[in-house]
Design goal:
Elements (H helix, E strand, L loop, with lengths): L6 E3 L5 E3 L12 H14 L5 H11 L2 H6 L1 H4 L7 H13 L3 H10 L8 H12 L9 H9 L3 H7 L7 H14 L10 H30 L9 H19 L3 H6 L21
Antiparallel strand pairs: 1-2
Helix pairs in contact: 2-5, 9-10
């Protein structure tokens, strides 16, 4: 028994795992799942095709085992692990044509970071993307970014694609409150118009309230004719109280006219 690896020797230089637990099958990316499985085999020094085959078969979910029933019923006598791996990848991995179609038409940023989008695009390209600066990949990646991020990255589009994706991550993080990769433009316009209408109504209400506070009880202005009428009534009342006419009350002895009745001293029938 190898205490460091938890494996026991078979006498031929190979080892079998004790209590080996493989990760759950990942239907979204079977190739990545096999990479994890083979890492476990390497750590436990599991090298034989037969041992690897039975470990993989025991880790398959029931629905996948049912789909592979024709393969599992008749395992080949040689290279059983390589055969089951090939069959799983062939049946569970999307065809190259469908992956390219998804890359060109349906793969969007959504709620992911730009670097995550780039990673997914490379997965869809598969073996066609060994060169990280592939022109079509760069162009598709930039097209999927929001316009604000593209404008910010415009001076740096000649950088390596990974570096460009890192910059896009930082821009997206700072611009998160104002940029939305899933927002609908029509809905945004309607929201802006509704907000503008509310601001206009509020501005009008504030102006009216301000005017009311400056002039809380302003009495209505009287017309000039009403003022003249009031003045005449007041003068007539004063004339009746003193016995003198308005002219003598106003000008005294300098009055050139007199209005009867008037008892101003010095008045004589001849002076009127």
């Amino acid at each position: 028994m190898d205490r460091n690896t938890g494996s026991s020797s078979n006498g031929d230089g190979t080892f079998s795992a004790t209590q080996l637990r493989l990760p759950a099958f990942w239907a979204k990316n079977p190739r990545a799942w096999f990479s994890q499985v083979e890492a476990q085999f390497h750590l436990r020094r599991i090298t034989t095709q037969e041992s690897r085959y039975y470990h993989v078969v025991s880790a398959l979910p029931p629905e996948l085992a049912d789909e592979l029933d024709d393969v599992l019923a008749f395992p080949p006598p040689e290279n059983a692990y390589d055969h089951i791996k090939e069959m799983i990848l062939a049946r569970k991995t999307a065809s190259e044509a469908s992956r390219i179609q998804q890359l060109l038409t349906t793969e969007e940023l959504g709620d992911r970071r730009p670097s995550q989008l780039l990673h997914r695009m490379r997965q869809l390209l598969g073996e066609r993307a060994p060169d990280q600066s592939l022109p079509i990949l760069r162009e598709l990646f930039l097209q999927r970014l929001p316009q604000g991020i593209r404008m910010t990255l415009a001076p740096a589009t000649d950088l390596p694609l990974d570096r460009l994706a890192e910059m896009a991550d930082r821009v997206a993080e700072y611009a998160a409150p104002t940029l939305s990769g899933v927002a609908d433009n029509d809905q945004q316009c309607c929201s802006i118009r509704a907000l503008e209408a509310r601001v206009d109504a509020l501005t009008t209400a504030i102006a009216e309230l301000s005017t009311t506070r400056r002039h809380p009880h302003r009495p209505p202005r009287r017309s000039p004719s009403r003022r003249r009428s009031t003045s005449r009534r007041r003068d007539s009342s004063q004339q009746r109280a003193s016995g003198s006419c308005w002219y003598h009350q106003k000008f005294g002895n300098r009055a050139f006219k007199c209005q009867q009745p008037c008892n101003w001293q010095g008045n004589s029938p001849a002076s009127h």
